[in-house]
């Protein structure tokens, strides 16, 4: 309904605006009009007729604009208040996030970390990325809180779930079904006149055939091609001819340095190479048992063609040539002596890395691998000897981090990665067995640092289910560093190696240490005291069990 702009009285339905007292025409004088002079009583007309009674209508026309201004003022204040509240909220959120990350909060963070819920719908045939998401931590979690008591709760939960259960060995027929080609290549018996496990294999190629044309180590790595170029040149000179047939000597290692990474295995390898009766594979760490036979070069790069066992055996051809020279010598033939040269292999992943099993082996029991590396090694070499070099797992983890981390390395970053890894490991042990978590490929690839590698006793107990205790020599890096001559003598005795001259022994024991920490990593300093305390608590129950198994309290690492 329209209004008269002069007197604010509603217009009548039939538009009798002309009856408005203040709008009678052009001769209207505001100074003479009684209404315009301030009177407030105006007759109300209905249906063009004046009502019999006077309706009193209070009209305060001079206040209209002030009321509009008042509402505009109130609206402006409300907007300002809302804007202020938003700014205050943003400041508080920033304070909580920044304070939680740097440990500056005066009260505990309201964001609580928790375990990961199990996902029964997670199937073996899901993609690796989908499976990895199952173990992703929340964005705001314990990784950003350097609070020892809080992280100690996680460690207590993990400790309460620790249970060392003896593993059931698979029988030989089950292993044959899994790797029929491997069993068709490696024989049941080896040459009796060789200390090292070797055998003769018929070679059906001719002089124009390249014996290493399809070797995956040569195809996928440029740094190994020089080695194989040399092997091609001398290959035909080392074939054994018998009844118009050609035979090549094939060998497996007599002993394996199986672990652990960042525990001095490279130094031990370099010193053993200097012994006149010891040879190694052409490549220090072939990683064939753990990775290459499954087609893994780097797990993040996916799978390649599987490396057949023949490619692995090619790596021992240089040593096999020397063993064959001894076997063909008159001394061995006439006097009935045997070859004493032995071959070693030093892949530090052999002891612990069974991450590929989930992609190849079925019949898993509660997430645990049905077959392990040691099952197959024992099937072919029940008399193999195994050397394990260990160190304080707390220091091993920090060394591992410094060696493999690519950027932004610092004691603070290491602390955060340790906390995040502990949370991930806790989430696993709440749902699965200890062994299932240790061999869980998804979990191991999700953890920022390799906590599981330091759980030495879990792996050792599994190796002891197939090998006798006297076939395994366990050393400590701390002892090796303080008394190298003593530890090397232990190794020589374990491998039943012949005596050395003083000059040979001095060469082996007095050479500089190998694969030490890089100068740029030393400049980062030690880990934070809080981080060390956390890791001490985490590894303590595992070290205690290890000391019990080995009957040696030195493996408690109390003094380091």
Question: How does this structure look, described?
Answer:
- Residues 253-517 form the Sulfotransferase domain.
- By secondary structure, the protein is of the alpha/beta class.
- It has a domain at 172-556: Rossmann fold (3-Layer(aba) Sandwich).
- The protein has helices at residues 64-102, 128-133, 148-160, 172-178, 180-185, 216-220, 225-234, 265-272, 309-314, 317-327, 330-335, 357-360, 373-380, 393-404, 411-429, 434-438, 441-446, 456-463, 477-482, 484-494, 502-509, 519-522, 529-550, and strands spanning 45-46, 49-50, 198-203, 240-242, 245-251, 255-259, 278-280, 342-345, 385-390, 472-476.
- The chain has a five-stranded parallel sheet.
Features:
alpha/beta; 3-stranded antiparallel sheet; disordered N terminus; single chain; 560 residues; 5-stranded parallel sheet; Rossmann fold; 10 strands
Topology, element by element:
Layout: E1 45-46, E2 49-50, H1 64-102, H2 128-133, H3 148-160, H4 172-178, H5 180-185, E3 198-203, H6 216-220, H7 225-234, E4 240-242, E5 245-251, E6 255-259, H8 265-272, E7 278-280, H9 309-314, H10 317-327, H11 330-335, E8 342-345, H12 357-360, H13 373-380, E9 385-390, H14 393-404, H15 411-429, H16 434-438, H17 441-446, H18 456-463, E10 472-476, H19 477-482, H20 484-494, H21 502-509, H22 519-522, H23 529-550
Parallel strand pairs: 6-8, 6-9, 7-8, 9-10
Antiparallel strand pairs: 1-2, 3-5, 4-5
Helix pairs in contact: 3-15, 3-23, 18-23
GO biological process, one term: hexose biosynthetic process
Protein name: Sulfotransferase
GO molecular function, one term: N-acetylgalactosamine 4-sulfate 6-O-sulfotransferase activity
